Amino acid sequence: MNRFMSDKKPTRHYSAKQEKRASALLGLKVTPNSGATAFAKGDARDQNLLVEFKTLTKAQKSHSLQKEWFDKNQEEAFATGRRFSAVGFDFGDGKDYIAVSVEDFAEFYGAWKQLHGGEGE
2 lies in a domain? Predict the structure, then answer.
């Protein structure tokens, strides 16, 4: 391999894998061009949820989350009529996480408790 070529894959390769993997698990549709168009926002979506994914290209022990990611995604979710917004992320190891506001988490957990007939401990 010459010195101007690299075997390193572009970030888009890793982010596309993460978006497809997590979207399949959540039953979401992957947004074309990762939401970089005027009419489709976020990386994955359905009628109620908009998710913005943040991907690391190599394994790390930490991943800094930025408030502006949450604010922008929440604004885009609201502007497109979606009730929930979330930031999905990984540590570069293929395991995905979702971060939401505590208010949204309380709603999700409350719905889970109702569905499963439990009030917790």
Answer: no
Phi then psi for 51, rounded to 5 degrees?
Answer: -120, 135
E-assigned strand segments in the chain: 29-30, 44-45, 49-54, 84-90, 96-99
Residue 4 lies in a domain: no
Q: Each residue of 94-120: pLDDT tens digit?
A: 999 999 999 999 999 999 999 998 766
SS3 30: strand
Q: Is residue 1 part of a domain?
A: no
Burial class (CB in 10 A: 0-12, 13-18, 19+), 16: middle
Answer whether residue 5 is part of any domain. Answer: no
Q: Are the C-beta atoms of 103 and 111 separated by less than 8 Å? A: no
Task: Kindly give, in sequence order, each residue whose CB lies less than 8 Å from that of residue 38, ignoring residues fewer than 6 positions away.
Answer: none
How far apart CA 3 and CA 14 sit, in angstroms, is 23
Report yes or no on whether pTM surpasses 0.90: no
- What's the structural domain count of the chain? 1
Contact partners, residue 45, CB within 8 Å, separation at least 6:
28, 29, 31, 51, 80, 82
